[in-house]
Amino acid sequence: MKYRRLILSASVVLASLTAQPVFSHSQMNLNESQPASNAMLMSAPEKLSLTFSESVRLTNVTLTNKDGKEIDFGFAPAFDKSADFEWKLPALAPDTYKVSYVVMSDDGHKMTGKYSFMVH
């Protein structure tokens, strides 16, 4: 009986410790992007824009071609929170591109995401 109470108590403590981080993390999502994920464009886009479901601190955004070469578009980390971000793009050659981003939640955790698009 004593062991049963000990196991039950340990289970309750363990469950509360593992459940807490789930509630403390932000449920941020990328709601919209331009170019859109998996877009097949007939001409190069003029801008890159990201719209999130809530205000975030955007700490990194990279744009790379299919060979992994990074395209400079003037990204600088955002110290102020926002849900909307936009940058003017240089002329992009026909290729497949990948956008990768890192945001920081209010509790200090980094969340990452990525998507790709193609310019014909």
Structure explained in plain terms:
The chain has 120 residues and is an alpha+beta fold. It is built from one helix and six strands; from the N terminus they run αββββββ. The chain has a single domain (26-119), classed as Immunoglobulin-like. It has one helix at 2-24, and strands at 30-34, 40-41, 47-65, 82-88, 95-104, 110-119. Strands 1, 2, 3, 4, 5 and 6 form a six-stranded mixed beta sheet that branches. Residues 10-24 have low confidence and may be disordered. Its main location: other. It is found in: Cell envelope; Periplasm.
Sum up the overall morphology in one term: elongated
Q: What composes the largest sheet? A: 6 strands, mixed
- CATH class term: Mainly Beta
How far do the termini sit from each other?
A: 71 Å
Total count of helical runs of at least 4 residues: 1
Give the mean pLDDT. Answer: 85
Strand/helix succession = HEEEEEE
What is the CATH-assigned architecture? Sandwich
Examine the coordinates and then state which fold CATH places here, giving the name of the CATH topology.
Immunoglobulin-like
Percent in helix: 10-25%
What is the total domain count? 1
Calculate Rg over CA atoms. 21 Å
Uncertain runs are: 10-24
* Beta-strand percentage range: 35-45%
The assembly state of the depicted protein chains is single chain
The tally of strands reads 6
The SS-based structural class is alpha+beta
